[in-house]
Amino acid sequence: MEFGGRYLMSAPRNRIWEALNDPAMLKAAIPGCSYIDWSGENALDLEIKVNLGVMHPTFKGELTLSNIAPAESYTLSGRGKGGFMGLAEGSADVTLADDGPNTILTFTANGGASGQIMKLGKALIGNSAQRIIDGFFERFGAAAGVEVTPLPRA
Question: What pLDDT is attached to residue 121?
Fold first, then answer.
């Protein structure tokens, strides 16, 4: 499944980069996140309760950052186990670009799941994933004190 978006953020690129790497900001922005913290130089441990409509599994896992170009881009890869629901994994490319005094963040992700999660159907999972992403950026803006405006995908 592929999903993502583009968002205009009313802050300079360096400020957005710092907020994207701050566990407190991420916890405030990730729906259902009960724990997130650095476990290594480029790794975060997290626990998230996910709303999949009819199910609400809790996933424990790790996020790893790679291809890091500070204040410009990185690839975020994650894998989480949701108990009897199975395994969910994905990766996302995040890029930041200047737009005058503002920043355009582009997010492109691919994800998949196994076990009981896929029995719910790809359409339900895909729609839930996109809602989670859009909700993340709304909450991220509120936590970072910046205005976030969704843009059409390029």
Answer: 47
